[in-house]
From TrEMBL:
Keyword GTP-binding: yes
Membrane-spanning segments: none
Molecular function terms from GO: GDP binding; GTP binding; GTPase activity; GTPase binding; molecular adaptor activity; protein heterodimerization activity
Gene3D superfamilies: 3.30.450.190, P-loop containing nucleotide triphosphate hydrolases
Lineage, opening ranks: Eukaryota, Metazoa, Chordata, Craniata, Vertebrata
Entry's localization field: Cytoplasm; Lysosome; Lysosome membrane; Nucleus
GO biological process, one term: positive regulation of TORC1 signaling
Task performed by this protein: Guanine nucleotide-binding protein that plays a crucial role in the cellular response to amino acid availability through regulation of the mTORC1 signaling cascade.
Protein name: Ras-related GTP-binding protein
Catalytic reaction equation(s): GTP + H2O = GDP + phosphate + H(+)
Any Gene Ontology CC annotation: nucleoplasm
Keywords: Cytoplasm, GTP-binding, Hydrolase, Lysosome, Membrane, Nucleotide-binding, Nucleus
Family classification: Belongs to the GTR/RAG GTP-binding protein family.
Biased composition (Basic residues): 374-384
Amino acid sequence: MVKDGYIVSCGEKFAKEEKAPPHPTSLPFQSESCPSPPTKDMEHFLDFSDPFSTEVKPRILLMGLRRSGKSSIQKVVFHKMSPSETLFLESTNKICREDVSNSSFVNFQIWDFPGQIDFFDPTFDYEMIFRGTGALIFVIDSQDDYMEALARLHLTVTRAYKVNTDINFEVFIHKVDGLSDDHKIETQRDIHQRANDDLADAGLEKIHLSFYLTSIYDHSIFEAFSKVVQKLIPQLPTLENLLNIFISNSGIEKAFLFDVVSKIYIATDSTPVDMQTYELCCDMIDVVIDISCIYGLKEDGAGAPYDKESTAIIKLNNTTVLYLKEVTKFLALVCFVREESFERKGLIDYNFHCFRKAIHEVFEVRMKMVKSRKAQSRLQKKKGTTPNGTPRVLL
């Protein structure tokens, strides 16, 4: 909101003087794996018994045929494994689950499904699997014959949509690093056409599929995952609006809100995303973390390579400045600024403090909502009822 020449957001004004930043908050990181495929008697393990758990922590399913690259994607994006190391990964033979809670906004579960497992087998309750899913990523090997993959995609999407119409269906056309630019475009067009034609023939034109060209050997996989994760963040419009206000009042050309662990950007301003700009921001995060690991820790190794004091400035040879500032323990703001605009660094810093305070307020509202839903869930369990009021059958 504009008031007296200032931009007012979350109780703060973007102005022209310094102000001390608030103390950041964050959530922990945790991960775990599932030892065996889910069956009908595993509802407690899968945490489907909590009607609000899926709303608080949505699930992302990674599916596709064998050797399509699902596990490699997960290891590169969330475990910082180098692409060359993925060549030695064994084929996944069991369903693996990983909880990703890197920051206040990146908070979901990833399920990696082996390509050889038929989860539509009667021993599997696929309705239970899809019921709490936020996004389904289907990986297709672009360098292989993808007719079988398209048939499996159609079967998976149609079954999942019958159970949960709110699932976001994402198709990663993977391993495109080995294709020429013309071949990439032709492959994407062909897969897009065939997949949508199959849905149209089945009378399911209302199902929307999103397609991405991806490779673990460049930043395309991180950008694709960023787009998927953003759809699962209910606060995304608020974050984008705050970024737009921040850059318009600070003379900044482009700004990203990054999760520093995975290099997924959870929000950016409304200006178009340039792939080269995104790659530079990812590289800057790597440089900051690597240098901090060497020079930023104490002699006994105590401390963290990324904390509330983390900041970095990199001047490029094209009169552009890269500016990184810590937002929370796991979130960083990375900005593109012209040198002449960066001369007003005091203004940028003050506006950043206002921006960071607004982000923390959004975070606090979300945490209050989570606590309220958990309390309501516990109360309903105690009363023996489900969210819609029907009696719960206690076994």
